[in-house]
Amino acid sequence: MSELSLSQAMPSGSDLVQITLRLFVALVVGGIVGFQRELTHKPAGLRTHMLLSLGIALILVTAEESGMSKSDLSRVVQGLVTGVGFLGGGAILKLTAEHEIHGLTTAAGLWLTAAAGAAAGLGRLGLSIVGVCLGVFVLSAFVSLEKRLGHHVSPDAADRPPSGRGPPPTDTSG
Q1: What is the pTM of this model?
Q2: Rg for the chain (alpha carbons), in Å?
Q3: Please, which residues bridge with residue 94 across strands?
Q4: CA distances (Å), 120 to each of 4, 50, 127, in order?
Q5: % helix / strand / coil in the chain, to the nearest 5?
Q6: Cα three-residue angle 132-110-80, rounded to 5 degrees
Q7: pLDDT tens string 42-59
Q8: How far is CA 66 from the centre of its chain?
Q9: C-alpha span between 113 and 135 (Å, rounded)
Q10: Alpha-carbon separation of residue 53 from 3, 31, 80, 132, 167 (angstroms)
Q11: Rounded Cα gap, residues 34 and 89, in angstroms
């Protein structure tokens, strides 16, 4: 395997601007979703979403810039989708004592962030921005609709004590 020459390793000025724009948009769209999650005190917040989106975009920009064929690029996307699935799976928590599952929306938000980062990384900047705007609309606007429909919106798992433990005992000895 031969090493890249400096001219191959460093993109031209216009390519560098385009790559920087793609990565910047990925960072921004990840930040938008992360900021909304931060405002609602969810476990995966601003930095998590920004890093996920930027990482996905960086992998895809690198793959595309290396001259991969569309079918090879497709396999990279498939691997990323699988990896994000594992990350989202880690965000889902089943609280046995309460018979509740938490983290599904967080996992879905991570998927959205990854998809937006992928779109930005592949140069589909408008698609990335529109997708995230719609996703943040869903995350923000539909909480009140769920409440009105009678959907039980429970506190986040991070806001409650670990399962089986209540608040610390109070001293009643006087």
Answers
A1: 0.76
A2: 21
A3: 101
A4: 25, 13, 8
A5: 70, 5, 30
A6: 105
A7: 888 999 999 999 999 999
A8: 25
A9: 9
A10: 29, 9, 11, 11, 38
A11: 18
